[in-house]
Amino acid sequence: MTAANAKKTAAESAASAEVPRRYAGAVAPAAAWGFVFLILRILAVSGYDWNTAFAVSTTLSLSDGLALLVGTLMAGHLLVAILLIGVLPLLVATYLWSARRHRAVVLLSTILGTVTLIALTGSFRLWWLPLATAAVFGAFALIRILPQKSRLRRLFSLAMASIGWVAGVSVLLVAALVQTPWVPQEEINTTNGTIVGYVLSVDSGFVNVLTGGHRFVILNSGDVISRK
């Protein structure tokens, strides 16, 4: 084997070994963020009562992750709208003006944020939302034309460079502040009366319900007459 071939083989081996390390480096932070999000959601919907949170945690499984995330954003639509006013313009600015390497992630996040803004505006008649978002983007455009030594310009550049942290913290704020569960509210008619709450899970013979007052109730399936 020639020296050139040996160097090529060593470079290929190093590149192959680098892929798992990069993958692990990306998965570990995502798993940590997901775990923090889950804990905050359980505590928030339980009214930050430890015993209720413990009961709620028993209703979740690994397959509930996506439903929990999407349901949380749906339940906290007003807070999501307020956070979008700052986060979406920053995403657009990052995609247009930042030299970030992960532009595809920023682009997908921008598209998701734009679709969310349109859905919120049309569903809840939040006509102020696109206007406020456009105004913030206009402010960012003005900041960008400031001298590079300007403190405001440097802070703006730092925010674009930290867009992942900004978006992540925004999602965690929603998780911590929205006390409405990730499932629709139901009126459950039972043989003992009517309960208004959120069905977190239906196990064999039991229905687990969290009421609006953060009270965890376990109903026998045979006692449930109807749900609507």
Describe the structure.
This protein is of the alpha+beta class. Among the domains are: 77-177, no CATH class; 185-227, SH3 type barrels. The protein has 8 helices and 5 strands; from the N terminus they run H-H-H-H-H-H-H-H-E-E-E-E-E. The protein has a 5-stranded antiparallel beta sheet, covered by helices on one side. The protein starts with a helix and ends with a strand. The model has no long low-confidence stretch (mean pLDDT 85). Keywords: Membrane, Transmembrane, Transmembrane helix.
Main β-sheet, spatial strand arrangement: 4-3-2-1-5
Radius of gyration (Å): 23 Å
Compute the number of strand runs.
Answer: 5
Average of per-residue pLDDT values: 85
pLDDT below 50 for ≥5 consecutive residues: which ranges?
Answer: none
Shape: elongated
Distance between the termini: 74 Å
SS class? alpha+beta
Into which percentage range does the β-strand content fall?
5-15%
Secondary structure: helix percent: 55-70%
Largest sheet: 5 strands, antiparallel
- The topology string of helices and strands comes to HHHHHHHHEEEEE
Number of helices: 8
Task: Briefly summarize what is shown.
65% of the residues lie in helices and 14% in strands.
Helices and strands in order:
Blueprint: H1 3-45, H2 50-57, H3 65-75, H4 77-97, H5 103-124, H6 128-144, H7 151-161, H8 163-177, E1 185-190, E2 193-203, E3 206-211, E4 216-220, E5 224-227
Protein traits:
228 residues; alpha+beta; SH3 type barrels; five-stranded antiparallel β-sheet; 8 helices; 65% helix; 14% strand; elongated
